[in-house]
């Protein structure tokens, strides 16, 4: 007999008190619950180089599906498969497998925080072969991807939609699930500093904290730790930083990282330092990955829609935070981005 998640201990998930997912039709939620209920094995995937929202949302739902008696496999499509150091505190990583061990053509696949097949990396082709693909996402560019979209751009984080899905599956919030969801919520709202931080965000945070999770420990793991080499790489990036026509920008090369044995995932925080510049409306950091491509991260203080600019260059994201991949040189990449920022 398949166990009912409602028999599990813990606080009921009650996102119906908030607004997350109200932009999604009820029949879409109902179909998602039916598809999940009828599947024996479910493959979960999030975007490459996962952040707290992508990995946290995926693992939170994975816990619920496993408690329902489903066979769960979770992954992300990086060529060099490794959980970023900052997220290794998240529970549930025993459910993760490298992309080569993911089912070839899953009966049902659920993706998290990914707006296109390309964002799934090596698992993009797998999603194309899946029988059904449920897309759980809060990026506006996600429309048309997959066979069923649970997409609400008004949600501050995919974690808010993941909580809604857990609730509709009859799930309960325990400390492990809450830790995963909180990591997603707090990272995508910038520690509740972004304009996306609505009353619903704080209501959700209250539900999660009520399970007994330690917010101080999560904050320390996410923001207050780094290897010494990160300081050296940050210093190099700041040494070459430029301020041009309201755009502050810099770049980090593979050579910078290699000199200090620093993995790509460790340099995510550079943008958070650069964006503090008073004189700049937009901040940009170009990060050279292990294959030599430039991963472009952008942030806006509100007057410029960086999401539109990045979408025009093959990427996507939100009004105030977005990114894309460039295979041109540094100067060529910035010239193209400046043109699109001017239009945005």
Walkthrough of the structure:
47% of the residues are buried. Residues 1-8 have low confidence and may be disordered. Strands 8-9-10-11-13-12 form a six-stranded mixed beta sheet, sandwiched between helices. A five-stranded parallel beta sheet has the order 3-2-4-5-6. Strands 1-7 form a two-stranded antiparallel ribbon. It contains twelve helices and 13 strands. The protein has two domains: 5-222, inorganic pyrophosphatase (n-terminal core); 228-343, Diaminopimelate Epimerase, Chain A, domain 1. The protein has helices spanning 26-38, 52-67, 124-129, 158-168, 175-188, 199-209, 215-223, 228-239, 254-258, 270-274, 306-312, 330-343, and strands at residues 11-12, 41-46, 71-76, 108-112, 132-137, 148-151, 172-173, 242-244, 247-252, 282-288, 294-300, 316-317, 321-326. The longest helix has 16 residues, at 52-67. With 344 residues, it is α/β, with parallel strands linked by helices.
């Amino acid at each position: 007999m398949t166990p009912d998640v409602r028999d599990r201990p813990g606080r009921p998930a009650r996102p119906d008190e908030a607004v997350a997912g109200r932009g999604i039709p009820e029949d879409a939620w109902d179909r998602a619950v039916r598809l999940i209920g009828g599947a024996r094995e479910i493959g979960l995937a999030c975007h490459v180089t996962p952040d707290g929202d992508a990995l946290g949302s995926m693992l939170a739902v994975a816990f619920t599906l496993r408690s329902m008696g489903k066979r769960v496999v979770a992954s992300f499509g990086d060529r060099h498969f490794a959980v970023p150091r900052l997220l290794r505190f998240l529970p549930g990583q025993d459910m993760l497998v490298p992309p080569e061990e993911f089912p070839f053509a899953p009966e049902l696949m659920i993706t998290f925080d990914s707006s296109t097949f390309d964002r799934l990396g090596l698992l993009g082709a797998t999603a194309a072969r899946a029988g059904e693909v449920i897309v759980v996402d809060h990026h506006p560019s996600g429309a048309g991807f997959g066979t069923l979209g649970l997409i609400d751009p008004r949600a501050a984080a995919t974690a808010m939609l993941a909580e809604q899905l857990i609730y509709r599956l009859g799930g309960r919030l325990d400390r492990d699930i809450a830790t995963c969801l909180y990591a997603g919520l707090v990272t995508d709202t910038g520690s509740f500093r972004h304009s996306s931080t609505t009353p619903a965000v704080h209501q959700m945070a209250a539900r999660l904290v009520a399970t007994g999770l330690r917010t101080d420990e999560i904050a320390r793991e996410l923001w207050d730790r780094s290897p010494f080499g990160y300081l050296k790489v940050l210093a190099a990036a700041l040494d070459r930083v430029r301020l041009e026509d309201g755009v502050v920008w810099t770049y980090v090369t593979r050579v910078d990282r290699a000199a200090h044995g620093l993995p790509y995932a460790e340099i995510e925080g550079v943008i958070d330092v650069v964006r503090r510049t008073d004189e700049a409306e937009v901040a940009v950091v170009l990060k050279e990955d292990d294959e030599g491509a430039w991963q472009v991260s952008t942030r806006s203080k509100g007057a410029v829609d960086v999401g539109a600019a990045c979408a025009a260059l093959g990427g996507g994201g939100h009004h105030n935070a977005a990114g894309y991949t460039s295979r041109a040189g540094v100067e060529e990449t910035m010239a193209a981005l400046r043109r699109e920022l001017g239009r945005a």
